[in-house]
Amino acid sequence: MDPIFLAPHPADSAVVLLMSLSNSSATHLDRAQSNENLRHELLTEELEAIGQHCFAIGEYSDVWKEKLPDGEIVAVKVLRGASTNNTEFLTQLDRDLLRNGKIWKELKHDNVIKFYGLSYNHGIMPALVFPFFANGSVLQYMKRRKLSDWKKFQWVDQIAQALHYLHSRDIIHGDLRGANVLLDDKSNAVVMDYQLSFILEASEFTSIKTAGTCRWAAPEIMNPSNSDSLSEPRPNFSKAGDVFAFAMTIIEIYTESPPFSVKKNDSAVIFAILAGKRPEIPANVAKNKILAEVVTNCWSQLPENRPSAESVCKTLADVPLPSFLRRFLDGIFEYLSF
């Protein structure tokens, strides 16, 4: 997500909502508080606003910087774009967030973002609370620094480890790409926004969905065939689809550009992927034969031909380490390029 400084803080908006839409706001809070199991997830009274503008904007949310009572800075992802008059949808959204949130809170992996809970103090729509990462995403970081191929490989390996961890718990990410990989204070990769694509695939959200994520999407996701003629086709999100997106993310990291960067039209990208075409493998990937093989296997046209995330991790473990001197010099180069 790119930085943006436009919208007022939702705390300010909440004042207007309480005055002009008090019934809707009260209904939303009652909806949340009526569910006994949801109460332990609420952080409504524990967040202190920092600043008057969001620091990032995503496809379905605005992201704000706020503070917990212990002083920790957190990122608050406030959902937006859906119909706030559809109480049935909002109730289902609460249930989905609660059901998945319980699972998310139990995840413990260095390369998977922690989930702190939900907040209902940001207007009608719920908000998700995560740690704040000052380094931003891998894409933002690469714009600020010159990085060695070894550093990029470390990120690729860490993303694979995160994906293997999620899949081992039957969690499908659904939207893996560079924008959803943050960097911690040691510049290690941390994967975020797992499973959100399923929750936010409802019609109330998809009316504002863009085609931008097609560059990472597997062909079976863009051309679903698992529905009857009377219903709208739903994307076939799967572990194999995540593996395909992982291959595209490798290309994105090594080229520092979106997959199919030479194609400016998303429709052309969709037709290319469905036709079995793929981005050109860059030279800095091709020279690493093991990594190049991982890419070509992971973006196979048929999902059954793609390796599992576990298998990918085992294959990447065979990539030889650069010499100590090479790694030391790369570290110095990265530091001086800041």
Describe this structure in words.
The protein contains 14 helices and eight strands. It has helices spanning 10-20, 22-33, 87-106, 138-144, 149-168, 196-199, 203-206, 219-222, 239-255, 266-274, 283-286, 289-298, 309-316, 324-336; strands at residues 48-49, 56-57, 61-67, 73-79, 117-119, 127-131, 181-183, 189-191. The strands form two sheets. Strands 1, 2, 3, 4, 5 and 6 form a six-stranded antiparallel sheet that branches. Strands 7-8 form a two-stranded antiparallel ribbon. Strand 7 (181-183) and strand 8 form a beta hairpin. The longest helix has 20 residues, at 87-106. It holds the Pfam family PK_Tyr_Ser-Thr. Keywords: ATP-binding, Kinase, Nucleotide-binding, Transferase. GO terms for molecular function: ATP binding; protein serine/threonine kinase activity. InterPro entries: Kinase-like_dom_sf, Prot_kinase_dom, Ser-Thr/Tyr_kinase_cat_dom, Ser/Thr_Kinases-Pseudokinases, Tyr_kinase_AS.
Concise description?
This protein has 338 residues and is an alpha+beta fold.
SS strand fraction: 5-15%
Mean pLDDT: 81
CATH class of the largest domain: Mainly Alpha
* CATH topology-level fold name of the largest domain: Transferase(Phosphotransferase), domain 1
Overall morphology:
globular
CATH superfamily of the largest domain: Transferase(Phosphotransferase) domain 1
